Amino acid sequence: MDLRSKLAGLPALAATLLVGMTLAACDSEGGSAATACGNSGNLDKTATISVQDSSAGTPAKSLYEWDISALSSGSSKQLSLAIRNAAPAVSARPLAIKSVTVSETTGTGGEVGAPSFACTGPGDKPCESASWPQVVPAGYDPACKPAGAVESVQFTIKYTRAGALSIRRYKVAIVFDGDVQQGSKPYVVEVATRLGTPSISCSPNPADFGKVGLAEAASTTVVCINQGKADLQMTDIKLLGSLPVAISMAGLTLDAATPLPSSATVTIAADDSLTITGVIAKLTSEQKMAAILRFATNDPSKPQIDLTWQANASGPCVSLSKTSVDFGLSQVGASQVQELQIKSCGADDLAITGAEITQGSEQGFAVGFATSCFSGTAPTPAAPVSVPQGLSCSLQVIYTAPQLGAVSAGKLTVHTSAGDRTVLLSGKGETQVSCPKACMTLKNLADSSPVIGQAVIPQTKLVLDASCSTPGSSGQAIAKYKWSVSQPPDSYAVLTPSDAVKNPQFQPNSAGAYTITLDVIDGADVHACAPAVYKLNVTPDDKLHIELTWDTPADPDKTDVGIDAKGKKADGTYAGTDLDLHLANPLAEDQAGQKDYDKNGTPDPWFAVCYDCSVFNGYPDWDEFGNYLDNPKLDRDDKDGWGPEIIYIKEPAAGAKYTIGVLYNAAHSFGKSIPTVRVFLDGQLQATVNKLGPDLVEGDLWCAGQVSWQPNTFVPCQGADAKGNLLTHKYPVVIQGSLQCQ
User: Fold this and answer.
1) Count of CB atoms within 10 A of residue 732's CB?
2) How confident is the model at residue 433 (pLDDT cuts 50, 70, 90)?
3) Lowest CB count within 10 Å: 65, 186, 262, 442, which one?
4) pLDDT: which is higher, 503 or 287
5) How does pLDDT run across 514-569, given as a tens digit for each residue?
């Protein structure tokens, strides 16, 4: 028996004091309190390195480049960086600086004579020999804080010009202890000096090819000038966008199909320039298109440059979403509608001045203007519809098969300020009158999401939707709907509000196989060619799932429901009988005061405080304290006459034997009832147990069996008769206060 079980019978104050004494004893023996501050008992704790530029208030960079050309002899330039511990205070460990090493080289990596750089840490001591305190985050537990620990420690990198200007590179490498992710890898900050700074300027930007027609070629150039005093480096050169342009510069060529290698570099010397040429071989569309030549530079004021190349950026442009529309086989007299998107793809707004079915087209085609941009009115040259650049306007294309076997062809012409566009149309009429087609979809009531596959968990509230059903070729609309559901044994779930609406709701509470059938009837009283059928599997997703259903022969309507918590109907009568499902923990029979009413030689587990899950204690805390996955839950309590009542455990204790019971709580004058218990393990039906022998009457308690998970077993209760039943008449229901754990 666990500690919590042993304390259950103690007064609350005594139990609290005992737990406190136990924890204190653990601390005194070198346990939890001391371990909580260190890493040995809290392997999840870590520090998080944060280095900030003290003057800018931004994260430190890995490389700083300083232009020292303006420094006079003896002048200096410095950078101050602050080290902090950015881990959350409740889960942090101290951050320690194990070592600091520095190195200085010439710009080409050679050795230096007299150093120009210095690094100082706490107490203005050299970084390599300074005494570095440990760093903790703000709000860190004072009891866990090491002696001398601080929330921030600063170091300074300083360059001093001595004599002639020289190019240097200085590196500070810090090895930390405490940041699990960083480990022993050094944290490095570098400073490089240079004489002069590059400065890039490119024009024109954007580079405009102007109006380019289909299959036309075009070219244009951009000039980039380095106005600085150091070489300009262009790196990481990429071409992005939809415009099919080829870029040439400094002997390199790239396009969408041929990117440059990542190591490619283009250099522009100080006071020099570079000409970049863009070429379009041909376009396949007249709509506005653009591409971006993106590259990185060592110009500190422009670390990235985007050069835009564009075509057809001026004037209107029209683009249709379709060049042909095929309506396929259509019912005679039933109109089919498809939408055509007219897009304004140029720099100027597009004017739509008309749209009509071209003369010579066969019967059945029409144009519809019942969309938001046309508002039901056809455009004309005098009253055009304007489409702003980049936006689209929807047009309806309609086909109604004029007769059986019709084969129709036609054209739609759209007139715009960017020219006329033609769309080819085709459609056919069915060759014989057909019946309506039944079709259904299933959705979750909670969020209208579709049911994926053919499986749901018990108690999923569903909406059955017949909207996808279609009329027959007579053109008569669907007039009637008829739904039916084949259910597992002892399940009486109903369609609401009825089985004759387009979108009834349905809640399958019992696990098992359901078959949902839909018939539709059109206005001519023609039934569907064949009913639509949906096979639905209702499968528990819990490791242990128990269902109780029951049949009461004297109950004339098993599907009626009560309107109050006791199952009463509006007229004051009861809707049905009330049976209660019980699931007892293996520890239940060990609790003080449990009696052997069923005379099987061991105390009964029923109504044990904490350890009997039922309507009297629907969600007790079992096994591992605070772990809801190993707790049972009464998921459904039914007082209306047939169930199901459901108890489940997400993850039961492996090998534990749980006892299942059924109490006939209230007959409400309906007489005897016959219960059925179904046990599911890992989503599969393990056992179906029917009460055999005399039927239950009010006050009876039936021990249905014992179930375990891993291994998955189900056996009769101890003391059961040859039919597997252990039945106690007029079982004493003694509930002192609450059955919930105190």
Assistant:
1) 12
2) low
3) 262
4) 503
5) 999 999 998 878 899 899 999 999 999 999 999 999 999 999 888 888 888 788 88
Of 365, 363, 367, the residue nearest 376 (C-alpha): 367
What percentage of residues in the chain have a pLDDT greater than 90? 64
* Average pLDDT score, the chain: 88
DSSP β-ladder status, 544-551 and 674-681: antiparallel
Query: What values do phi and psi take at 564, rounded to 5?
Result: -125, 180
Q: How much is the pTM?
A: 0.45
Q: Which amino acid is at 98?
A: K
d(CA 688, CA 625): 32
Higher model confidence: residue 406 or residue 583?
583
Domains parsed from the chain with CATH numbers? 3-30 (no CATH), 49-194 (2.60.40.10), 200-311 (2.60.40.10), 318-429 (2.60.40.10), 441-538 (2.60.40.10), 544-728 (no CATH)
Q: Is 522:477 a contact under the CB 8 Å cutoff?
A: yes
Which tokens hold the place of 396? 């309806």
User: Quick check: 11 pLDDT over 90?
Assistant: no
> CA Rg, the chain, in Å?
41
**Strands 187-194 vs 63-67: parallel, antiparallel or unpaired:** parallel
CA gap 309, 306 in Å, rounded: 10
Helix (H) or strand (E) holding 286: none
Q: Is it the case that residue 36 has pLDDT exceeding 60?
A: no
Give 632's DSSP letter. E
The backbone torsions φ and ψ at residue 713, rounded to the nearest 5 degrees and listed phi first, read -140, 155
Number of H helices, E strands in the chain: 3, 46
- Which one, of 87, 186, 95, 173, lies nearest residue 132 by Cα? 95
Distance CA 738, CA 623 (A): 20
Residue 502 scores a pLDDT above 80: yes
- E-strand ranges in 359-416 read 365-368, 385-387, 392-399, 407-416
Is the separation of the CB atoms in 228 and 199 below 8 Å? yes
* DSSP class of 349: -
Q: How far apart are CA 721 and CA 728, in angstroms?
A: 12
pLDDT digits (tens, 9 = 90+) for 603-649: 999 999 889 999 989 999 998 887 889 999 998 888 888 889 999 99
Split at pLDDT 50, 70, 90, the class of 728 is very high
Classify the phi-psi angles of 679: left when phi > 0, otherwise alpha if psi is within -120 to 50, otherwise beta. Answer: beta
Pairing outcome for strands 245-249 and 365-368: unpaired
Per DSSP, what are the bridge partners of residue 527? 521
The DSSP call for residue 536 is E
